[in-house]
């Protein structure tokens, strides 16, 4: 017969929880019939202790070792309540027949199975609702990935209902009229969970993970209740928020050898406030709506379930006056807002200032301007906490994973590498990024996707380390950089060979292309061949008309991943090893074990993978945290530290906003008897209060997140409201030193010497002997750019994802206009217009532009072409008759006095019946302006006129120029004449002046009187940006000259 006398204890937040548990167990306080015998190594072997989390196991073990010392003993069995060891009665037939003791279904398999049911529901839904919602637009899950996203939401509902042990049948008791007609649709959808899902679990002989956990807890409770326990059974640190856990605790509490140790029960809270929490937890009429978010709500609910009065709970550990005052102040600050607490706070109110100073003397507040500053300040604080005693432990606790990752990164400044206990997202690991890179490279026809795969650290492609880097660099330079065409990765080998051939026959190769050796080219071809063979198992199916199962896609993907990662010895050193590799392997194992749940095409498979890995997290492979830890709120429970930082204390981060359930409103959850999501805020509040029991404590928050103002966590707001402005300023002042260190960390103590304006004087023999007409504009405005390109021979490396730009658009439009002129399309007749559009389409097809670029540019050029034909027809009526038209006319003009050549190609030259020539330059933008040409800021047309006069254009016999024109290729084509009635100079004057200026300027350069200075003219109208500005470090010196 079990003893009905319960052993219920509590430990204050400021006491070391597990240390007090161990001491109380050893000295017989927890279980009177048990006392540790140092001379007996097996004395503790019969003890069983349940703790809330896995990290707590190692912490409790460490306390046993620290207290007992070097004695050789068998430690107690320590089990996590969230993952109990399966030691249920093997002879209990009733338990063995329970379906819930079947192996629990894996998380990935559950999502795929639920998604399959959701897609089946979608397929029959239109027929069901057509009559009820004839005019409604239903947003149904279209793709498998949509179904998996919905499956995640549905799985969350299933877990909530199962954890709270509610019946799905209660759904049908809800009043349809009260919730509206759409509730009928939601109810039909939830049949997936209430009916079909349960049937499916039976079919595949699996159990729900939650039901499995509940069944194990129930089995353990039955074992304890029916069998005589051989040693103490203790639950330490649980608040019993899960009904199954509460029942186990109830069984243990009434066992003669059982004991319950509660964390941070507020035994000093006024009785009327405690009664309010108890009534709320019992479901009595909800008057005080903030009770469920109170730190003590879960404990009040548990004590009511255990039928234990608060005054019967015994306290363990000694009272520390200062820390006890802090816990009293926090308790009072967080009282439910609807309660009148004035009569309970007379003593604290009377001595409030003194008590606040006394109890919060070791507490600081960091209020950073942004997340980066907060992370740096926290990292510095953690680093400083390691000074002195090496046995001291420090930690950051935060619910903000981004802040945790920032702090981890900042700690590397000090040579500190620590794990984040809450884990790393799988998609943030090398394996996860490789998977996404592989799928994108196979599916997307662009250089960037392929380059990401090729350059990935895990991608070996069967090469040795010696040749791998050289081969990757060569492939990138030859085939991927500057490639604006779309191409399939399966054609990569032929593309590399084609690019090598093109570069070989290029009359003007770039300097970096000349540095490629034959060995580089051969390695690039070999690597391309290996890449194509590696991804063939996946790529060979991307054009299949039939859909394939996720099981098949998974197998092909794994094969490709291994092909990509094989080194020269066919070893997979990094793919499947370590925790990241094991999690990666588990992902595909679960997909394959799920079988052919879902069929998908290649695009859908990529989306499915993205959804599945988005929820996967890799926990660090360690049960023991170092002296410095970064913890989540769950992992930190009950762990003790000497210095503790509570980071990210902003509303929405900690506590997080309760998530909205897409299928059950809060009213529905209440009517179903489900706890509202506010209870999680109450649990987070309890974590906050427990953590605040650390003597040396730093609260931390940022004033802005993502450049948006933030609001302090509700707990900080309540605390500062209670403490007042002076209290708030004191805490903030203590935190300022950490912020000042953070702000000064990146400030150099040495004065930085800024670069001066480059002004090189290369010798005459090193200076260029040839310039193009178009280069002269840059020569006279930014000589340094010419120096870098033509003397230092530095060519800009093209980008990998070299999307078509304005320059490419201009070249394409020029080429089409040239062809239209050559085909003599100058009349707006239906036949001519049709021919014109055929030419345009043909030119665009040859370019093979990305679709989004092709659509925009082609549509725009149709308008330009129509306008250009009208312009040409009108011009031939109004102007002098054009006898000949020359397009893309080359010219070479020698300037013997300087020993240089001017070369170039004129877009168009018209020979008029007056015997004069008309030089035309096509422009797709608004620059250069007429004024720039007249003032010789851009002397290209003037120099071309001088070339005509000097006979440099060998294809034409004319030596006289009547005008210079810019034809603007816009939807409304127009012509800007450089020489008009407002301009006093003639073409001859302008051309002669441009040539004289050029000769004089080059003489100065050749004589060494004029340097090849960066941006000769810093006035705005001259200052044209250059691709060599970063080399000239223009931002370091330009402001001084501007001033």
UniProtKB/TrEMBL annotation:
<dbReference type="InterPro" id="IPR038726">
    <property type="entry name" value="PDDEXK_AddAB-type"/>
</dbReference>
<dbReference type="InterPro" id="IPR014153">
    <property type="entry name" value="Ds_break_AddB"/>
</dbReference>
<protein>
    <submittedName>
        <fullName>Double-strand break repair protein AddB</fullName>
    </submittedName>
</protein>
<dbReference type="Pfam" id="PF12705">
    <property type="entry name" value="PDDEXK_1"/>
</dbReference>
<dbReference type="InterPro" id="IPR027417">
    <property type="entry name" value="P-loop_NTPase"/>
</dbReference>
<feature type="domain" description="PD-(D/E)XK endonuclease-like">
    <location>
        <begin position="771"/>
        <end position="993"/>
    </location>
</feature>
<dbReference type="InterPro" id="IPR011604">
    <property type="entry name" value="PDDEXK-like_dom_sf"/>
</dbReference>
């Amino acid at each position: 017969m079990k003893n009905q006398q319960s052993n219920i204890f509590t430990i204050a937040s400021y006491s070391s929880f597990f240390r007090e548990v161990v001491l109380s167990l050893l000295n017989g306080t927890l279980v009177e019939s048990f006392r540790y015998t140092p001379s007996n190594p097996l004395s503790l072997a019969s003890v069983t202790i349940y703790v809330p989390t896995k990290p707590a196991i190692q912490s409790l073990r460490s306390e046993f070792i620290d207290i007992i010392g070097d004695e050789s003993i068998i430690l107690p069995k320590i089990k996590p309540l969230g993952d109990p060891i399966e030691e249920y009665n093997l002879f209990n037939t009733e338990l063995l027949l329970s379906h819930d003791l079947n192996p629990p279904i894996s998380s990935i398999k559950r999502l795929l199975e639920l998604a399959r049911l959701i897609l089946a529901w979608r397929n029959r839904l239109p027929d069901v609702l057509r009559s009820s919602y004839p005019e409604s637009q239903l947003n149904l899950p279209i793709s498998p990935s949509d179904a998996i996203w919905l499956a995640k939401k549905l799985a969350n509902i299933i877990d909530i209902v199962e954890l709270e042990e509610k019946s799905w049948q209660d759904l049908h008791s809800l009043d349809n009229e009260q919730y509206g007609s759409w509730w009928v649709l939601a109810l039909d959808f939830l049949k997936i969970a209430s009916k079909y899902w349960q049937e499916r679990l039976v079919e595949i002989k699996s159990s729900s993970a939650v039901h499995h956990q509940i069944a194990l807890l129930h089995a353990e409770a039955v074992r304890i209740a029916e069998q005589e326990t051989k040693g103490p059974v203790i639950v330490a640190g649980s608040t019993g928020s899960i009904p199954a856990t509460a029942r186990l605790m109830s069984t243990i509490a009434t066992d003669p050898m059982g004991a319950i140790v509660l964390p941070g029960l507020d035994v000093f809270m006024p009785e009327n406030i405690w009664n309010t929490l108890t009534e709320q937890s019992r479901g009595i009429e909800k008057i005080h709506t903030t009770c469920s978010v109170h730190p003590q709500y879960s404990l009040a609910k548990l004590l009511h379930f255990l039928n234990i009065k608060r005054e019967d709970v015994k306290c363990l550990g000694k009272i520390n006056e200062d820390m006890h005052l802090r816990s009293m102040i926090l308790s009072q600050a967080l009282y439910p807002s609807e309660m009148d607490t004035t009569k309970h706070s007379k003593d604290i109110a009377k001595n409030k200032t003194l008590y606040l100073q006394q109890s919060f003397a070791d507490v600081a507040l960091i209020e950073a301007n942004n997340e980066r500053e907060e992370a740096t300040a926290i990292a510095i604080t953690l680093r400083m906490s390691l000074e002195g005693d090496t046995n001291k432990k420090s930690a950051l606790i935060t619910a903000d994973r981004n802040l945790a990752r920032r702090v981890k990164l900042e700690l590397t400044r000090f040579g500190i590498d620590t794990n984040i206990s809450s884990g790393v997202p799988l998609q943030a690991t090398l394996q996860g990024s490789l998977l996404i890179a592989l799928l994108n490279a196979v599916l997307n026809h662009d250089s960037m996707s392929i380059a990401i795969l090729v350059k990935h650290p895990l991608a070996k492609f069967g090469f040795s380390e010696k040749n791998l880097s050289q081969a990757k660099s060569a492939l990138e330079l030859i085939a991927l950089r500057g490639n604006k065409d779309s191409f399939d990765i399966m054609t990569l080998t032929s593309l590399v060979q084609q690019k090598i051939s093109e570069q070989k026959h290029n009359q003007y190769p770039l300097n970096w292309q000349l540095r490629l050796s034959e060995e580089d080219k051969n390695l690039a071809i070999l690597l391309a061949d290996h890449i194509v063979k590696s991804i063939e198992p996946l790529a060979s199916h991307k054009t299949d008309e039939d859909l394939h199962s996720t099981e098949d896609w998974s197998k092909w993907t794994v094969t490709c991943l291994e092909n990509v990662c094989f080194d020269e010895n066919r070893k997979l050193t990094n793919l499947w090893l370590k925790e990241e590799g094991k999690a990666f392997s588990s992902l595909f194992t679960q997909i394959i074990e799920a079988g052919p749940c879902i069929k998908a095409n290649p695009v859908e498979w990529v989306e499915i993978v993205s959804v599945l890995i988005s929820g996967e997290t890799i926990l660090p492979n360690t049960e023991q945290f170092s002296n410095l830890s970064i913890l989540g709120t769950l992992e930190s429970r009950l762990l003790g530290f000497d210095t503790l930082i509570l980071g990210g204390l902003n509303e929405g981060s900690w506590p997080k906003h309760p998530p909205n359930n897409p299928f059950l409103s809060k009213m529905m959850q209440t009517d179903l008897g489900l706890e509202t999501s506010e209870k999680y805020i109450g649990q987070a509040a309890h974590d906050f209060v427990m953590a605040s029991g650390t003597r040396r404590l730093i609260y931390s928050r940022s004033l802005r997140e993502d450049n948006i103002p933030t609001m302090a966590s509700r707990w900080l707001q309540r605390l500062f409201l209670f403490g007042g402005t002076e209290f708030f300023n004191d805490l903030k002042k203590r935190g300022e030193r950490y912020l000042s260190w953070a702000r000064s960390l990146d400030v150099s103590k040495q004065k930085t010497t800024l670069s001066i304006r480059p002004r090189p004087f290369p010798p005459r023999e090193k200076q260029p002997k040839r310039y193009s007409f178009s280069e002269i504009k840059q020569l006279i405005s930014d000589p340094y750019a010419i120096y870098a390109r033509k003397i230092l021979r530095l060519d800009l490396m093209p980008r990998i994802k070299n999307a078509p730009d304005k320059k490419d658009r201009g070249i394409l439009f020029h080429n089409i206009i040239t062809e239209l002129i050559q085909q003599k399309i100058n009349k707006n007749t239906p036949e001519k217009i049709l021919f014109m559009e055929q030419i345009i389409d043909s030119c665009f097809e040859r370019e093979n532009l990305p679709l989004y670029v092709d659509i925009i540019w082609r549509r725009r050029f149709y308008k330009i072409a129509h306008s250009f034909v009208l312009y040409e027809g009108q011009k031939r009526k109004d102007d002098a008759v054009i006898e000949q038209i020359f397009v893309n006319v080359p010219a070479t003009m020698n300037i013997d006095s300087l020993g240089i050549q001017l070369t170039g190609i004129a877009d168009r030259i018209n020979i008029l019946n007056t015997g004069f020539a008309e030089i035309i330059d096509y422009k797709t933008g608004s620059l250069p302006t007429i004024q720039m040409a007249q003032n010789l800021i851009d002397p290209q047309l003037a120099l071309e006129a001088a070339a005509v006069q000097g006979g440099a254009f060998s294809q034409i016999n004319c030596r006289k120029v009547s005008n210079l024109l810019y034809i603007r290729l816009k939807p409304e084509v127009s012509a800007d004449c450089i020489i008009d009635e407002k301009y006093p100079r003639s073409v001859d004057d302008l051309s002669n002046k441009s040539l004289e200026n050029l000769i004089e300027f080059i003489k100065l350069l050749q004589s060494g009187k004029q340097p090849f200075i960066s941006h000769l003219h810093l006035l705005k109208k001259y200052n044209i940006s250059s691709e060599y500005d970063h080399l000239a470090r223009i931002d370091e010196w330009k402001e001084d000259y501007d001033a």
